[in-house]
Write a sequence for this structure.
């Protein structure tokens, strides 16, 4: 990708990327050897080319068992391990910090709040204080890396909402932040006792970017309600508070489309896709696919109930359709998630017991993490992909499925409450809270003639190629360049 001039001067003006998750993890194996791996997730791999080209430093929580055995006196290590092009600065967190910052505040307060799952929301003032202090530690690491020089700081997501406000004390830093998850409206945000403090922290940014125009409008509306001393220009997306100005934009994230298309076209991926269809559909039929982390926002139980209703209302589909649900274990240290995983497994057994035949069962629940190559094969094998979160900032599974349908006629059934619904013109949109309508959408997809499948998929593929991960990145970097010139 073409970098702006200011990013090509890492010695005088470094790029400092800040995230909770690190791009490489070092672990010690059973024989005592240390190995490195890349955590699953599209964001870290998508940002690798930027960091490799620009140099600079990535600041993140070091969560690997051997992370700090390979770092220097400043808790830094060169990465990628085989050919270092930038530095990874790791923060070591205590068990108390992990619980207060990550488990409680990030994942039991901010996550359910922003996804409007208020029955899951808990708030503990002591844990929030830990969250604030850990954010201060991230900010201190950034200042240490900058070493008094001008720098561009790019912060990722909801784990680090207070970092911009702390860094704002240094006028030599240009601070921008991408918020990956939804932003709630004022009526939801008022449930958070520290709402004003959260907003003030984010207004430390020079540039704050959301996934959708709705998220952007919600944020600006919240500032108007909770920070009466702020002057909000809704049309221009600008907030002035004191002497500082924050520009608020919406740039939806995407995927590396060419990489997924190339992967899906590989002969070994095609062979694996055919093998999957033979395993699950030995007598023919159609394969439905879901790919999700085990997370209550993804709508898996409601999706299963809608599938159950499909089998009730259309018994001719019994033995002719299989629902393959890849359910990746997630945040198992958070009690809500461990309980939810068992709920999904119990519901699977209930539906399979009710409908299964000796040579067929309706739901194949896969509780493991597939690598990208195996996922591409699953996407190619599927006739229909079911993406029905209760709410989602974007949902890249929808885009990955479409990119991997090279030569196929796959249909995307997509929740109206996923950010991707605003971009994927050609998907069948559903309300995940309406089981009957969702079952009807499943049946519509199963019965859809090839010609309609073809035009729907072609439309989505065209849209996807026009908005790749690199278009997202370039749009943000262009905003940064413009705002830096105006500063």
């Amino acid at each position: 990708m073409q970098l702006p001039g200011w990013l090509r001067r890492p010695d005088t003006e470094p790029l400092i990327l800040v995230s909770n998750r690190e791009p490489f993890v070092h672990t010690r194996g059973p024989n005592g050897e240390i190995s490195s791996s890349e955590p699953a997730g599209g964001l870290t791999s998508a940002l690798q080319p930027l960091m490799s080209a620009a140099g600079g430093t990535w600041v993140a929580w070091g969560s690997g068992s051997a992370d700090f055995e390979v770092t220097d006196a400043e808790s830094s290590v060169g990465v990628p391990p085989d050919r270092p092009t930038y530095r990874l600065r790791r923060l070591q967190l205590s068990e108390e910090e992990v619980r207060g910052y990550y488990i409680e505040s990030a994942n039991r307060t901010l996550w359910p709040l922003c996804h409007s799952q208020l029955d899951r929301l808990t708030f503990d003032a002591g844990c929030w204080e830990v969250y604030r202090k850990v954010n201060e530690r991230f900010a201190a690491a950034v200042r240490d890396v900058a070493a008094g020089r001008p720098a561009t700081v790019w912060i990722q997501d909801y784990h680090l909402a207070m970092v911009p406000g702390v860094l704002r004390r240094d006028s030599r830093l240009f601070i921008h932040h991408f918020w990956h998850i939804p932003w709630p409206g004022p009526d939801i945000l008022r449930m958070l006792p520290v709402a004003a403090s959260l907003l003030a922290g984010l207004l430390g940014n020079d540039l704050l970017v959301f996934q959708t125009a709705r998220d952007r409008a919600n944020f600006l509306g919240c500032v108007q309600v909770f920070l009466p001393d702020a002057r909000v220009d809704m049309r221009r997306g600008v907030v002035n508070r004191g002497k500082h100005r924050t520009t608020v934009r919406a740039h939806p994230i995407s995927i590396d489309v060419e990489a997924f298309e190339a992967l899906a076209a590989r002969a070994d991926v095609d062979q694996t896709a055919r093998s999957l269809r033979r395993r699950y559909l030995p007598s023919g039929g159609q394969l439905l696919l879901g790919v999700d982390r085990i997370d209550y926002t993804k709508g898996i139980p409601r999706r299963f109930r809608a599938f159950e209703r499909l089998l009730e209302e259309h018994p001719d589909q019994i033995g002719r359709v299989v629902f393959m649900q890849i359910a990746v274990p997630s945040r198992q240290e958070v009690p809500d998630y461990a309980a939810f995983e068992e709920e999904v497994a119990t519901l699977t057994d209930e539906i399979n017991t009710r409908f299964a035949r000796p040579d067929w069962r309706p739901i194949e629940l896969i509780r493991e993490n597939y690598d990208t190559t195996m996922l591409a094969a699953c996407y190619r094998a599927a006739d229909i992909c079911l993406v029905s979160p209760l709410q989602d900032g974007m949902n890249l599974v929808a885009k990955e499925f479409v990119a991997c349908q090279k030569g196929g006629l796959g249909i995307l059934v997509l929740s109206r409450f996923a950010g991707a619904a605003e971009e994927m013109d050609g998907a069948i949109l559903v309300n995940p809270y309406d089981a009957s309508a969702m079952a009807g959408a499943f049946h519509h997809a199963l019965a859809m003639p090839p010609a309609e499948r073809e035009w729907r998929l072609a439309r989505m593929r065209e849209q996807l190629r026009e908005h790749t991960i690199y278009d997202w990145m370039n749009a943000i970097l262009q905003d940064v360049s413009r705002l830096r010139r105006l500063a």
